[in-house]
Amino acid sequence: ISTTVWTTISMGYTFISTAILLASAFTVTFSMPFITYVTLGSSILTSPLKMLEDLLLMLFTPFSVALAIKSFHGRLNKPILEAAHLSSKIAILLLVFGNLAIIWPKINSINPDKLYFSLLAVCLYCFSGFSIGFFISRRVFNWDRRTAITLSYSTGMRDCAITIAIAITQFTPLTSLPALFYVIVQQLAASVMSTVATQMMS
């Protein structure tokens, strides 16, 4: 849902972002178990239909709240808006630190070089996602700036909460570490992209 929020903040097309988000939620319920089985030889013990139901619930609830806030944005006073922004940052921190608490006892067993490589790979993956989505939209298809901004967020941001949940429940907790890195890095990348988008649209 943060993809749609950042897209709206950066003056992209909210409806395109939402459509991509819903399409992604639908396809991942069937593609992820297959890809996991092919690449890792491990099956995810879950029902695709149940996963789809949970994903739609996870998306619909915060999206409805976001739309409500957006519709009343002009009538909400500044303290309420500031509290909403602060609560979203606190939620991200709780997600990161809560999962770090689970895997922290095993962090010392990881080779530091692997940690650094994992962080570097996550940074490259994240920033390349934002860049590819933007430049292909603008340079290859010559679409307008708002579309390029929208697709930049759609290709750069990931729903890491689902990734973390699957990693912890289906594999070992340490497999959630790259996703935890991505939660932090993608917020930084989204903030940079928002600044660039604001300058472009001004």
The total of beta strands comes to 0
Shape field? globular
**Largest sheet composition:** none
- Along the chain, the helix and strand elements come as HHHHHHHH
Q: State mean pLDDT (0 to 100 scale).
A: 76
The end-to-end distance, rounded to whole angstroms, is 25 Å
Structural class: mainly alpha
Work out the helicity level. over 70%
Radius of gyration: 18 Å
Number of helices: 8
Proportion of residues in extended strands:
under 5%
Low-confidence stretches: none
Structural description of this entry:
- There is one protein chain.
- This protein is an all-alpha fold and 202 residues long.
- The chain is 82% helix and 0% strand.
- It has eight helices and no strands.
- The chain has helices at 2-9, 14-40, 48-71, 78-107, 112-140, 145-156, 160-170, 177-201.
- Helix 2 (14-40) packs parallel to helix 6 (145-156).
- The radius of gyration is 18 Å and the shape is globular.
- The model has no long low-confidence stretch (mean pLDDT 76).
Question: Which SSEs are present, and which pair or pack?
Answer:
Layout: H1 2-9, H2 14-40, H3 48-71, H4 78-107, H5 112-140, H6 145-156, H7 160-170, H8 177-201
Identify the notable features of this structure and list them briefly:
globular; mainly alpha; 202 residues
